[in-house]
Amino acid sequence: MRLRSAPLEDWLRDYYFTAEIDISSSGFHSYSMAELRAKTGLRHADVDRLVFDDGYSLGAPEVRAAVARHCGGVDPDKVMTTSGSGEAVSLVLSALLRPGDEVVVVQPGYHLLVEYAVALGCTIKTWRLDPDQDWQPSLDELAGLMSERTRAVIVNFPQNPTGATLTEAQQERLVRLAEGVGAYVLWDGAFTDLTYDAPPLPEITARYGRAVSFGTFSKAFGLPGLRFGWCVAPPELLADCVRIRDYTTLHVSPLVELLALGVLENADAFIRPRLDQARINRTTLTDWATAHPGLVTLAPPAGGVTAFPRLTGIADADAFCDELFQKRGVLVIPGSCFGRPQHIRVGFGGRPDLLREGLDRLTLALTEARGRPRPHPADPTGSP
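The structure assignment produced for this chain is given below.
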């Protein structure tokens, strides 16, 4: 197995930690330990009682039960806790897929959900989202990609980077398409709790026996550095995951699970304030795009905290994004990281003032790049 370079991670490695203004990220701005303790009621004495023993291969029973409740009351025996959802995805794909298996993936999409299956030697069928259709997924197109050879359909809705999602009826049709050919549905639910015009979609594993869902603290919870995630999957698949894990991480740290339990038991206290803020930021972003039709076109994101605008008249988005960072201190992600070089990923989960300032600087950079003069304040005398 040989994994190709992940362009998104390569880009962030070079820019993320020194950006003055980050309007690229796919999550909220992060909570501190003090904020975590205040929201959970965790005391220093609770931490002091912790003993750093080895943990359970599938996760501590009380933490698995808390995940199960958060996911709508699924069977805790179907839950595995992991070091971020990335570990869960890699374990499940490694356990489930074999060279030559036919797998449907979504493009543009998050690299892990595509490249891991490529590295495993799978035959890839690409479900392409069309920017001219505001990235709306076509279930008819998906139906045309599937056959009795399809082993799995790998999706993330709401979607990174476009913010597109499915309706509940479309989710049901996707399940029926997979069921018709006996395929697994692997559902990255990182943005499940982050929707704006409709309620979150139902837990996919409650609708289909061959579904697997993945969750994480990195997005809606505002805790990417905690590195806590999970999957909900058939117990027999989890048993295969444990066999692989026995050669790698073994289990999640008991300290991480202690903190995670408190967060899961107070999930709304973490998600709600940031989601309310993201609603405001989403309006700021869409209003900005509407005000600058000659610079960008944007399909308003239905979920998540990323959008994927197309730049007008920019021949090289990579060079533009690099110059934006070097000259103006603003970090965005070039669309080439997702196979769409005329687009950029903008994240709107951060502080509202930084989003506004970042968009102002982005506007100036786009105007300059298109050869337009900068706007000047009107002369009250009317002279040229």
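Interim note for the steering committee: The CA atoms of residues 285 and 348 lie 8 Å apart. The first strand starts at residue 21 and ends at 22.
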